[in-house]
Amino acid sequence: MSRELSLSEIFQLGYYWETKILLTAVRLDLFTVLDGRKKTACEIAARIGAHEQTLSLLLNALVAIRLLSMEGGSYGNSSVAEKHLVRHSTQFIGHLLLLHDAEWENWGKLDQTIRTGRRSVDRHLFETDPELGSNVLAVLHRIGRQSGPEFAKRLQLIGGIRMLDLGGGAGTNAIAFCQVYPELAATVFDLPATLRLTEKTVKEAGLESRVSLLPGDFNQDPLGGPYDLVLMSDILHYQTFQTNEALVRKVAAHLSPGGRLVIKDRFLDETGTGPAWTTAFAVHILVNTQEGSCYKIADAVQWMTKAGFDSIIELEKTAVVQGVK
Ligand SMILES: C[S@@+](CC[C@H](N)C(=O)[O-])C[C@H]1O[C@@H](n2cnc3c(N)ncnc32)[C@H](O)[C@@H]1O
């Protein structure tokens, strides 16, 4: 059994001030203002249109957090802030933090949601702010590029596989699979607005001849094919159990005999109390989506079994499940 929390850890858990200070600094784009040159609070206030004295309090807290430095009354970025929090840096991750900040109000309604069982949002933020959605996908793409090829290798594919990356987003997995398997050709199916970003990432990877883009709504539109491999990565936790069941059945009809369906998601374990990150993610999905949920591997097994898949196995614990048509 894991050890009990200490009192100071409980205080630490409840202490979100620094979180909001960071998110606000990113929202005000302070790190970009300080790109490459130190400035006084007065200069920064003039640049962003802020009240100098109140801004100073925020800047001082950012110094204490070690995101900024201060010398002779001038503030400057730390090297990590310069690399990841300056907007035009190639390694900017601020869009992800802006998403967390945009979800702040929804988290404020958590108690209400728990009491009533009713969700407080009627649309996911990616629908109400598609530009933010696309920027977040671009950040996730940059992060996912590192793990994509290892995941592709673990599936041990052979020959000229025709792959469908369903709800493939920026094409992170399709690109990684093409890089690992030289004979594989991929189709990325996603909403038309998302595919504008995918077009860029595929071009950057020089894979236009092997990755095709298919726009549509995967619950409504035909998916093309037939395919030898369909990947559903991080799409099912936005939807209801019944919608997922229907989608898995639909996918089965687009696979060739012997073809594989691989579902990669954030599954909860049998007890629902682990993995720890996923239990918190399940609450995040509750407050920030209209009807999403975190599911268990047993749910995915049920969708696949009902759709007629065989040899269903949990390839990676609480992360990847595969079935064969
Ligand atoms: C969290 S992203 C996952 C992206 C990618 N599969 C990955 O693992 O990196 C979810 C993706 O599903 C797409 N999506 C959501 N609903 C969809 C729908 N009804 N039809 C097609 N794509 C959809 C979104 O546009 C987004 O690209």
The CATH class label of the largest domain is Alpha Beta
Largest sheet strand order:
6-5-4-7-8-10-9
Largest sheet: 7 strands, mixed
The name of the CATH superfamily of the largest domain reads Vaccinia Virus protein VP39
- Calculate Rg over CA atoms: 22 Å
| DSSP helix fraction | 40-55%
Heterogens? S-adenosylmethionine
Q: How would you portray this structure in words?
A:
It is a single chain. By secondary structure, the chain is of the alpha/beta class. It is built from 16 helices and 10 strands. It has 2 domains: 79 residues, Arc Repressor Mutant, subunit A (Orthogonal Bundle); 209 residues, Vaccinia Virus protein VP39 (Rossmann fold, 3-Layer(aba) Sandwich). The strands form 2 sheets. Strands 6-5-4-7-8-10-9 form a 7-stranded mixed beta sheet, with helices on both faces. The longest helix has 25 residues. The structure holds S-adenosylmethionine. The site of S-adenosylmethionine has 17 residues, from helix 11 and helix 12.
Question: What's this entry about, in short?
Answer:
The protein is 48% helix and 17% strand.
Primary descriptors:
single chain, 325 residues, alpha/beta, Arc Repressor Mutant, subunit A, Rossmann fold, 2 domains, 7-stranded mixed beta sheet, 3-stranded antiparallel beta sheet, 16 helices, globular, binds S-adenosylmethionine
